[in-house]
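SEQUENCE AND FOLD
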Amino acid sequence: MLKRLWLILGPVFCALLLVAALLFFYPINYSHHFENEKRSAVTLTAENFKNRTQKAKALTDEDHRFVPFFGSSEWLRFDSLHPAVLAEKYNRSYRPYFLGQRGAASLNQYFGMQQILPQLENKTAVYVVSPQWFTKKGYDASAFQQYFNSDQLTSFLKQQNGDVAAQYAAKRLLQLYPNVAMKDNVKKLAEKESLTSFDQSFIRFMARINQREDAFFSTFVAANNENYENLVLPKLKNLPSKFSYPALEKVGVEEAQKHTSSNDLGIENKFYQNRLKKALKRLKGSQKKLSYVQSPEYNDLQLALDQFAKSKTNVIFVIPPVNAKWMEYTGLSQEMYQQAVQKIKYQLTTQGFTNIADFSQDGGKPYFMQDTIHMGWLGWLAFDKVVDPFVSNPQPAPSYQMNDRFFSQEWSQYTGEPEEFK
């Protein structure tokens, strides 16, 4: 019987051992090709967002400076004044590397950071933090799992020291991914138990396998050229040859007028026709009861802040608005929105994150928004006026003063004046 089992399963077992051995010794080569890196920076697919190799390649290029721009779906709103287009047209000293997907928020960003910690150390970053992430129930588990992978898991486990941040991250991981691989190790972190020497050896082994698997498969998947070729390069001809904000504003106004002609909400025509027009009656007044003031996302944001502090990363935070006409139509409270913004800003500033571009009250400006919740045209221009000087002139990170109370449920559910939170 044993012999028969071996004849059936033996080849499979040997094949698995061979694959594991090949992956274990597979070399990691971060060779650089600027044209490929520029395309990778705007690929904006789920695979590119959650995998390591392509972003690590770009962020380690010593001849060309790529800067991580963390966010969610706003990076997908391309027009002639999109940050990628301006950087390409005017050959800036840096290129944005966009890290974001629809439904992604701080928890996915935190686990993604674990893959590129050396590239964050003493560097500069841009972080869009949208109040609309801060829903009462918090992150959707399916969205989180979609952007999480084994390399993020072992990168996280390998680098944790059992502090409050690690404990919180492990608890959140178990909440949103109850059947996650290596669950026993994650549970130990969540319960503040020490990992055994065997645990640590196994984590290092799996981290090596996962990192090399990522590198191996990245060689078969060419950078997705579609966004660069179709959404960046064609727009260059629309821009003046010499950089000028007044001239760029004229371009933005003309383009926005043309592309928002089908409605009086200031929403891009295709978005309005394909996603809103048929649902308008149903959506009227639909957001009256929404609140972004109480949410576990405040705790998740603290994870990202904690990592930036540990990595001594100098970050500028961008807080976007909601289209004011859409806000009025759906009944979303501006007062509530500003309450959430003040809570976010308090969490940032009291810990030393004082570089903040707050556009939360600009959703009523003409051509500032491309759709209901995403900036475009003159919104991107306002973004550039603040972000470009910060990124173009990198400075050392300030001295952060981290407060672990921002990991508490009391803070996530707090509704009072932020300054009175004790």
About this structure: The chain has one domain: 2-420. Residues 13-18 have pLDDT under 50 and may be disordered. The two ends are 69 Å apart (CA to CA). The beta strands are 66-70, 95-99, 124-128, 314-319, 356-358.
